[in-house]
Amino acid sequence: ASTWADVPQGPPTIQTTPIADLNFLRKAILGITEAFKADSFKEKINLGVGAYRDDQGKPYVLPSVRIAEDKVVSQLLNKEYAGITGVPEFTKAAALLAYGPDSSALDRVAITQSISGTGALRIGGAFLQRFSPGAKTIYIPNPSWANHAAVFKDSGLTVEKYRYYNKDTIGLDFEGLIADIKGAPKNSIFLLHACAHNPTGVDPTPEQWKEISEAVKSGDHYAFFDMAYQGFASGDTDKDAFPIRYFIEQGHNPALAQSFAKNMGLYGERVGAFSIVCADAEEKKRVDSQIKILVRPLYSNPPVHGARVASTILNDPALNKQWLGEVKEMADRIITMRALLKKELENLGSKHDWSHITSQIGMFAYTGLTPEQMDTLAKEHSVYATKDGRISVAGITTGNVKRLAAAIHAVKP
Ligand code: PMP
Prior knowledge:
This protein is an alpha/beta fold.
């Protein structure tokens, strides 16, 4: 028999899984893509995508990225390996972007380039598995980006959930969240979405973040921030970084996964960073050495092109300014589409409260529609999104928002 005769067929893998219940979602997203493709209706709408689209519904390469790429190419750089922790000008600028120019963390942060946000989470998982002094249990929100559970499980951590979303209010279950942080065994690890929570679009307020910081501290827990959408949520990279900067001010020394997939549109270039804020420069040196020992057998060293592009944008003042404007444009388009969808629903005479559509933030909106209503949206209105009621706001355009609102109004009159 073949050596691999007993390897079972796995379920189809999908890349942008956004919810806690993986199997449910696998079926849901696969169903959507297939059904969307098979639908011959010209005005069909796909709200399942996890990437930004412009107002024509097309993938978008940022003009600042085009310019940076030209600059990188015209320098005729060689293709030698980067060091284990990547392109130093990139990681330095990435830390500056996340922590801010006045941060006390900058002199004591151990940072490495990573294979985008996913790779950063995976390195973090491996580091915590090896060195975390607690029970090596990580708590992720319920629901969370579905890959979180898989990444941390494969890193050898035990994955638990904390309460996050309240489906009755279509908002944050703040009491549940605080109770679960306080109730967890001491020295647990808490994975926190820094901004634009995926999949719900529901973020804590600054005041709530302050209480979360207190609760994490009172339990002697460790905070691991996933910041996959810095700038993409509010349009302002400083505002979106508030939680992590606040935690550091309060004396936490968190870990951080950064991604440049969304805010620079560098999805396929896989540009990210993983960092750990250390107590001091001496600790940083020790942590740095162990990060290298972890990364070396994983992939030796990261790819250089995307990091050079991001580094060019971050380090060139004029280009940086242009990029910040472009991030804001993307965020603003999404915010505008939220407002437009709500307004169109109200214009149609909808009696329901749709304010959650505009109070939520980032790429995704949790509509509160039931699986049955989502089914009808697809079957009768050619509007495709996951059964949990999540829609990708990036898929809404000035051209399709009226039809979308009419479809939603029809399934939930
Ligand atoms: N974390 C969250 C919450 C995400 O939504 C994503 C992307 N969908 C990622 C991390 C990682 O994405 P990437 O590996 O493309 O940077």
